[in-house]
Amino acid sequence: MTPSLPATEIAPDKRLQRLVDAVQELSLARNLETVTRIVRSAARELTGADGATFVLRDKDKCFYVDEDAISPLWKGSRFPIETCVSGWSMLNKQAVIIPDIYQDDRIPAEAYRPTFVKSLVMVPIRTMDPIGAIGNYWAHTHHATLEEAQLLQSLADITAVTMENVQIYAELEERVKLRTAELEVANKQLEAFAYSVSHDLRSPLAGIQGLAGILQEEYRDRLDGEGQELTDLILQCVKNMTHLIDNLLVFFTTSQKELRPGDTSMKEMAEEYFDALRKQEPEGRVFEFSVDELPNAGVDATLMKHVWINLLSNAIKYSRKKDKTVIRVGFEETPQQTTYFVQDEGSGFDMMYYNKLFGAFQRLHSDQEFEGNGIGLSLVERIISRYGGKVWATAADGAGATFYFSLPRETVR
Question: How far apart are CA 136 and CA 118, in angstroms?
């Protein structure tokens, strides 16, 4: 250790401020190394001592963890707790002031002869059940005042609290790591399950779709009107179930999917998926669709696709009872974020039930009114949350709805 320069004694009116500064520094400490570094310097500066040491109790020994002194003391050494003054302070749960180390039988004088120490003060870290001690040393005879001892004890008391917090922080951090590892395993298992279920469900659905298709193509002339309607209904149910499986698969794997951001044209994406969705609607339906000059975003296009498809398909679906489907896509900007929105003049919903809106498998309309599976908006929220954004909506029952999603400005190009 490189010897430290003599400490500059702090004026009495500045000592309290130095203690406050030390308390503030300790409040940010998250490990023992930081604590010892702060304490060794503050302990020495508070009294203008020539040296300071930070000692921890290690079962029946005193471990001299760190020091700040004009020449080396005992850093890294361990001594039996009954043979050193730091041990006396811990065992007796009180501070000790020794003006002359060679005149006090609590001091192992031979251990001090190679050092510069002539006088010292030692205080316990935590007086109820001491876990260590803080010592100050002088190279000349110094009778420490009660104020100096009290300042050092105050620092020791704060150090005790900090060390308890460091331990709690370390335990919480370890729990978080363990919990994160458990969640990663659970998510992988869930992803594997989702893929398995997806495959297992698709096979019988494909069979049902194929058989219903054969009925339609080869036996249509043998089916009456009701039979044909039932066959159409079977195919529609297969289509809905396939869509649900697709959404479930994306929903369960979204949090695990690696994001691949690119310069994505949000305007082109909105126009493309609206056009595709419109072609699936019955002929003769009147549409009025407008898109503002949306800013591009640095997002994963394969994930953002599901955001636009779900929001636009909802706007189209819930406008079916209107003579004309009016949909507008726009954006708003603030210094912190860019907000995109999809606005319609459809059926809307009662804001009283807003808390159910983004819940998985939660629906605000019956199947008789509008088809759906209640997973789309949950998927939208999950995707946007991965970018640190938010999803929300405003609506009036029977008077349309507007769905918003925000992205941080650093995401928008």
Answer: 11
- DSSP notation for 277-304: HHTTSPTT-EEEEEE--PPPEEE-HHHH
Q: Terminal CA-to-CA distance of the chain, rounded, Å? A: 53
Is 71 part of any domain? yes
DSSP single-letter state for residue 261: -
Radius of gyration of the chain (CA): 36
- Residues 235-285: tens digit of each pLDDT: 888 887 887 777 777 776 676 667 788 899 999 999 999 999 988 888 878
Nearest partner of 133 among 23, 30, 40, 5, judged by Cα: 40
The total of structural domains in the chain comes to 2
Helix (H/G/I), strand (E/B), else coil: 82: helix
Q: How far apart are CA 217 and CA 383, in angstroms?
A: 41
pTM of the model: 0.49
Q: What is the b/e burial string over 129-167, where b = at least 16 CB atoms within 10 angstroms of the residue's CB?
A: ebbbbbbbbbbeebebeeebbebbbbbbebbbebbeebe
Task: Select from 172, 194, 226 the last residue of a domain.
Answer: 172
Tracing tokens 């080396």 back to the chain, one arrives at 72
Q: Is 256 helix (H, G, I), strand (E, B) or coil?
A: coil
